[in-house]
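From the shared-data thread, chain only:
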Amino acid sequence: MALKNILVHVGGEQRRNAVDLGAQLAAQFDAHIVGLHIMAPPQIPPYVEAQLGGEVMEIQARFAAEEAGKAKEVFQSIVEHNGLSSEWRTREGDPVEILQLHGRYADMVVLGQANRDEPGPRAGDDIASRLVLSLGRPVLCVPYSGTYGTVGKRILVAWDGGRAAARAVGDAMPILERAEEVSVLTLNSDHGVTDGMDLATHLARHDIQAVTQNLQAADMEVGAMLLSRAEDFGADLIVMGAYGHARWRELVMGGATHHVLKHMTMPVWMAH
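Structure, as tokens:
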């Protein structure tokens, strides 16, 4: 399967990183790229609405329109620079619900990480965790800081032999097939290094040569160790399954999923 339709969530300070990476993939795969900006519905406390409701709504609407305009300018400048087939969409409502609706008609969704230093609640973190568990499509999560000249040249695959990890690898095959180097990191697998070797054999049948390594770690350490191994490998992409349920087998990767989404230092391809 090739990537032919890429949806990018264009919002917040992280908008440029997400668009840059989405555009890079669209150029590689000659794909159509869709920019989606989501405006939050007006929120007015009841005690304010009674006296200043109309005025506050007007201010919020003006601010939302300005943000949408800035996002569109960023998106259009990047896609025009890369000569991509593209379209722009603006919607209002709950970000996860809207991304679900539009994302299910795309091959993947590119989503920027929330800036942890911004004041107020970090809604973007919640968007990523909720979306990847409910979308049914792979999600490429892009760190809000740093610049990323490449994506998918050196890939670290986090593997535990489970369904979510298998889904992530299957969805990522178009990118894995173009990678220069792939490392399979087996995480607390029931079968240890054998699982990683079995996956490497499967990838080899797709002409993907992968090295394997095994990691056994305490539940709370898996996410940090995964990011550390990715840094050591020089990865520009992590491919991993996302876990969100409380069954005993998923407790380890559930914690790892949360840690990686919060502390990622490179793009992460997730599927559930």
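Strands lie at 5-9, 32-39, 86-92, 108-112, 139-142, 154-159, 181-187, 210-215, 237-241, 268-271.
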